[in-house]
Amino acid sequence: QVQLVESGGGLVQPGGSLRLSCAGPRSILSINVMGWYRQAPGKQRELVAYITSGRSTYYVDSVKGRFTIARDNAKNTVYLQMNSLKPEDTAVYYCNVVGPIVSWGQGTQVTVSS
């Protein structure tokens, strides 16, 4: 049973930065394509970024150039570095595999506001 735990969210000013972390079993993080998703109030959950086992990356257009996804298999962690944050980035952020998803963690809240 996979348990993925997100952390690192918080309240930041526009233009600020946060680094999110996703901890989980190494067997899952090292083999699967891992993604960061987010869901804002009243909106559908969307895939923001993903990273493959070969460390190729993808970003949705709205965050490209501002967010960076990375993985550290030795630490069993996937990161999302978020720079130049905008109010529209406000959402609950989740990590999960890219593919069939059977469950979600609690996520971590990111709020961008002055």
Strand content: 35-45%
Share of helix among residues?
under 10%
Largest beta-sheet details: 6 strands, mixed
Strand order of the largest sheet: 2-10-9-4-5-6
Order of helices and strands: EEEHEEEEEEE
Shape type? globular
- Cα Rg: 13 Å
Structural class by helix and strand composition: mainly beta
Low-confidence stretches: none
Give a count of the beta strands, DSSP E runs of length 2 or more: 10
Number of helices: 1
Alpha carbon gap, first and last residue: 40 Å
Mean pLDDT: 95
Structural commentary:
The structure is a single chain. With 114 residues, this protein is mainly beta. It is built from one helix and ten strands. Helices cover 4% and strands 45% of the residues. It has a six-stranded mixed β-sheet, with no helix packed on it. A four-stranded antiparallel β-sheet has the order 1-3-8-7, with no helix packed on it. The radius of gyration is 13 Å and the shape is globular.
What are the SSEs and their pairings?
Layout: E1 5-7, E2 10-12, E3 18-23, H1 26-29, E4 34-39, E5 46-51, E6 57-59, E7 67-72, E8 77-82, E9 91-97, E10 108-112
Parallel strand pairs: 2-10
Antiparallel strand pairs: 1-3, 3-8, 4-5, 4-9, 5-6, 7-8, 9-10
Summary of the model, kept short:
The protein has 114 residues and is mainly beta. It has one helix spanning 26-29, and strands at residues 5-7, 10-12, 18-23, 34-39, 46-51, 57-59, 67-72, 77-82, 91-97, 108-112.
Q: Any key phrases for this structure?
A:
10 strands; 114 residues; six-stranded mixed β-sheet; 1 helix; 4% helix; globular; mainly beta
